[in-house]
Write a structure and sequence with these properties.
The chain has 348 residues and is α/β, with parallel strands linked by helices. It has two domains: 3-218, inorganic pyrophosphatase (n-terminal core), CATH 3.90.1640; 223-347, Roll (Diaminopimelate Epimerase, Chain A, domain 1). It is built from 13 helices and twelve strands. The chain has helices at residues 9-21, 35-51, 69-72, 87-96, 115-120, 151-163, 171-184, 194-205, 210-218, 223-235, 251-256, 302-309, 335-347; strands at 24-28, 55-60, 80-82, 99-103, 125-129, 141-144, 238-239, 244-249, 279-285, 289-296, 313-314, 318-324. The chain has a six-stranded parallel beta sheet with strand order 3-2-1-4-5-6, sandwiched between helices. Strand 9 and strand 10 (289-296) form a beta hairpin. The relative contact order is 0.10. The protein binds guanosine-5'-monophosphate and manganese (II) ion (MN). The site of manganese (II) ion has 6 residues, from loops.
Length: 348
């Protein structure tokens, strides 16, 4: 599919038909949901329930972190199912759905624990995503393009084909779309296209409180978080001669700073503010693995590095992945040497 054929009249008609014929609709996004994942789900759930009268369930593999609560709380609590907390209810929502909309991911494995239930389901499946290389064969209908800031921007474009005017969107839908676009573009720092600013403009005109979103997304953390950031940058930052920076948030540091999920959002970007650094990696120790977050400047591919060395992928300059113990690393203590070696190999 080319960018030009992402949104066609035929596909919009097909989507409207799928929505019309379904009473119960499941809306899904990826593991470790970020602002774009939660924003996409909140926006689509709001549109489908408030504008179309559907019985919507949002199903996520695990819970969004507390810093995203300003978006998560826009999803009515009786419509939100977290697979890690209530697997039976989450799978039943997928089984019972008469349409399944999957947002902000390209490969179905990214729904993690829900993957098998989604593959089994007979209902029409729709993918709306902005990553390279969608798993098109797993879906009956695919909206995929990469020249947008976020999945929320693509959802906005699709909704505009249907309703014609941002002022006709339910307020919660408009708000959530602005949230996902603002967080995924890091407040207009990355992946900004002419259409991104057009969307922002139309949503502002429609009355979305952008100042409030910026305050909630970027200026509402606990004080702990800035102390943790200070510690990581001062004590834990490694810089290689090839212009890469990396740091590891260990369990011990997490405990020391009373770390909570989602509080390191944005840390990986900070080293890139130095002129000589073109690649930044942030690793977080978990029980049997390290979660890996990668960002790069133009000309260096975060995505290739994630694919080759960290079992992951993503966008050209923003990717993620994982290192499993003992599959990838015999022991956790091997992680530093692994990262050093991967960077040397990759940037040579
Ligand atoms: P983050 O560093 O914010 O967790 O992730 C940045 C981007 O990398 C995400 O938007 C997503 O596109 C991608 N990503 C993160 N983790 C994974 C992963 O485990 N696998 C793949 N394929 N992509 C990932
Ligand atoms: Mn996204």
């Amino acid at each position: 599919m080319t960018e030009a054929t992402c949104i066609t009249k035929e596909k919009i008609d097909a989507l409207e038909g799928i929505i019309r014929r379904a009473k119960k609709i499941a809306v899904l996004s990826h593991m470790n949901p970020d602002g774009d994942a939660v924003g996409s789900c909140a926006a689509v759930a709001s549109y489908l329930s408030e504008a179309c009268g559907k019985d919507v369930k949002v199903v996520l593999p695990n819970a969004p972190g507390e810093p995203l609560a300003f978006i998560t709380k826009r999803i009515p609590q009786d419509r939100l199912l977290i697979h890690a907390k209530s697997p039976e209810a989450a799978e039943k929502a997928i089984e019972d759905a008469e349409a399944i909309l999957v947002l902000d991911l390209n490969r179905l494995e990214r729904v993690s624990s829900e993957e098998a239930a989604v593959r089994r389901a007979k209902a029409p499946k729709v993918l709306i995503d902005h990553h390279i290389g969608p798993e098109a064969e797993a879906f009956g209908l695919v909206f995929s393009k990469t020249d947008v800031s976020s999945a929320c921007e693509l959802i906005y474009q699709i909704l505009m084909e249907i309703v014609g005017d941002a002022r006709k969107l339910p307020p919660t839908c408009a708000y959530a779309l602005m949230c996902g676009m603002t967080t995924d573009s890091n407040n207009f720092a990355n992946s900004v296209f002419p259409t991104t600013l057009q969307m922002a403009s139309a949503l502002l005109e429609a009355g979305v409180d952008r100042d409030g979103i910026v305050e909630s997304a970027f200026n509402s953390y606990r004080t702990n978080r800035i102390r943790l950031l200070g510690h990581m940058l001062d004590q834990r930052l490694h810089v290689t001669p090839e212009g890469a920076a990396w740091m590891i948030l260990t369990k011990e540091i997490k405990e020391r700073f009373d770390y909570r999920d989602g509080e390191t959002e944005g840390f990986v970007n900070v080293p890139l503010t130095a002129k000589d650094i073109r690649l930044s990696i942030f690793l977080t120790e978990e029980d049997d693995r390290f979660r890996v977050s990668i960002r790069s400047k133009k000309g260096t591919s975060a995505r290739d590095l994630a694919g080759r060395f960290f079992n992951g992928g993503g966008h050209e300059n923003a990717s993620g992945g994982r290192l499993l113990v003992p599959d990838d690393l015999p022991e956790k203590g091997d992680v530093e040497a692994y990262v050093e070696n991967a960077l040397k190999e990759y940037l040579k």
